[in-house]
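Raw record, unedited: 4-deoxy-L-threo-5-hexosulose-uronate ketol-isomerase
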Amino acid sequence: MTNSEFRYAHHPEDVKRYTTEELRDHFLIPEIFKKDEINLTYTMYDRFIAGGAFPVDKAVKLETIDYLKSENFLDRRELGIINVGGTGKVTVDGEVYELGHKEALYVGQGNKEVIFEKSGNEQPYFYLNSAPAHKAYPTKKVSKKDAEVVELGDSKYCNKRVLNKLIVNSIVETCQLQMGMTELVEGNIWNTMPPHTHSRRMEVYFYFDLEEDQTISHYMGQPQETRHIFLQNHQAVISPEWSIHAGAGTSNYTFIWGMAGENLDYGDMDKVAVNELK
């Protein structure tokens, strides 16, 4: 079964007036993984889709959803998958790809059938991102050894982290979808500092590897009009193009950034000094 929900885009002037509950209702994706289902959120920000496939007792098949008005999910879309659990299998039009922990798979436009299932006794958690596509590119698996790895930050500022570029244009041909994974080094809590905005792209942040009973505060909003949302493990938050996107946890964690929009230039961002935030 494939479930879906719909989210509208929002003007920053309106968001300034939101209560905590309203902010969470519009931007937080609280439940990514549902047993033996695919759970998706469709947002009007660049028509991005984020969600998860969670095959526990049976395989699950990616089905089209009403918002797409297409026979197959990927008729006019591309798909990125990162497995944040144990080893599992993804079958794309009959070809089987085994994905280990923190491995990725790009699936191009035009593929008809995508099936997710367990591989042995391990439990996979398949995190999904999708964006509209204008051209069919080949399906490609990306392991961590294939990733572009960048070390960022400094323990002095509690933001030492390892950034793994997985589905990016230097590794995989895509139309607009970009995905990567940032791992906070133990003892570090801040991600994406100094913060930035990029008016040509939106993002979704998915948080995992968070210790039980710990939490993450995700900061969003215009640089001089910020808000925060507290998240738990395996939750995601939508980040509009006008918003910063940064977070701090009560322990270290990992997060996946997925983005789509006007270009594929990872460095296309408008940085904001930390002492200028309000």
